[in-house]
Amino acid sequence: MTDHSLRLPAEWEPQAAVLIAWPHAGTDWAERLAAVETTYVALAAAVTRFQPLIIVVADAALRTHVQSQLRDAGVDLAKVRFVELPYDDTWLRDSGPITLKGGDASFQLTDFRFTGWGGKFGAAQDDALVAGLVQAGVFGHAAHRRIDWALEGGGIESDGDGTILTTWRCLVQRHPEQSRDEMTAILRDGLHADRVLWLDYGYLEGDDTDAHIDTLARFAPGGRIVYQACADASDPHHDELQRMAAELATLCTADGHPYQLYPLPWAQPIIDDGRRLAASYANYLIVNGAVLVPAYDDEADDEAARIIGAAHPGRVVVQVPCRPLIWQNGSLHCITMQLPAGIA
């Protein structure tokens, strides 16, 4: 039997804060730092309308710079907490804590090994980030469990009720020596889950995460799944995403009901220096009372926001300009990590 004293909350459950790390000249953002900071400022403004924001900064100078940027944008700095720690990059969905919550309001910061998406990039400082946050006292008395097995937060989705959704393409790249059954057992143990649902299809060009689930399909409350669709038969993604949609249509909730599916529109190709960028609308962020939706200066932006809002009824929908983010192959959800209510 699964230990139900801990579980991985769904993203739509109450949150204490959102955690981000600010880009600076020592990160891969250096070449386009000014452009990407506009997205981070917009994100900070959006999050702090609804809840606190914790910002990791590399040093005191960066903290002063960020405070000035946020103040100029009218952000309520009383809702912002800064933590000074070293980091390689700013993708905190993947290097930040995966927080399990106990029925007695206890918490466990689950700290899987971060390898820079299978060794593609240096990640030593990012792999130590969770331990650094714990040492800095960010999470009070929450337990810290290190698991020496590569997994990124963007690679898993939780419905908060014992079901995990993930992709075979990503995890077989991280662990080619392990079977699906072996990986399922590790995920169930590490995340205190009852079951793991696997997708075999789905990818985005320009995505170096090897098909993270948070770029493809997301759980929503009430037995819903929001997913990135592609209706353009001439697009190279069409067949793969059609197969993914067919897979999703076969999945059922824990009580045996088919999921209600919400297909998202497809943004027109965004090309940078001959390279297609991964513009996924599925990479949105849920916060208290709202859902923050990526916008790419595309005619599909508003329809994507409408559909995501319909899948998350009762929440304000806020569009955040994310075109600068996809230059580095990620989007809104990838740079954030929510923290469940009560932990911070």
Brief overview, please?
The protein has 344 residues and is α/β, with parallel strands linked by helices. The protein has 10 helices and 19 strands. The strands form 6 sheets. The protein has a 4-stranded mixed β-sheet, covered by helices on one side. A 4-stranded mixed β-sheet has the order 4-3-2-19. The protein has a 3-stranded mixed β-sheet with strand order 8-9-10, with helices on both faces.
Please characterize this protein's 3D structure:
The protein is of the alpha/beta class. It has a single domain, classed as L-arginine/glycine Amidinotransferase, Chain A (5-stranded Propeller), CATH 3.75.10.10. It has 10 helices and 19 strands. It has helices at 33-48, 60-72, 92-95, 116-119, 124-127, 129-135, 168-174, 180-191, 238-250, 301-311; strands spanning 6-7, 15-21, 53-57, 80-84, 98-102, 107-113, 143-150, 156-158, 163-167, 195-199, 217-220, 224-228, 260-264, 271-272, 275-276, 285-287, 290-295, 316-321, 337-340. A 4-stranded mixed sheet has the order 1-5-6-7, covered by helices on one side. The protein has a 4-stranded mixed sheet with strand order 4-3-2-19. It is globular and about 50 Å long. The model has no long low-confidence stretch (mean pLDDT 96).
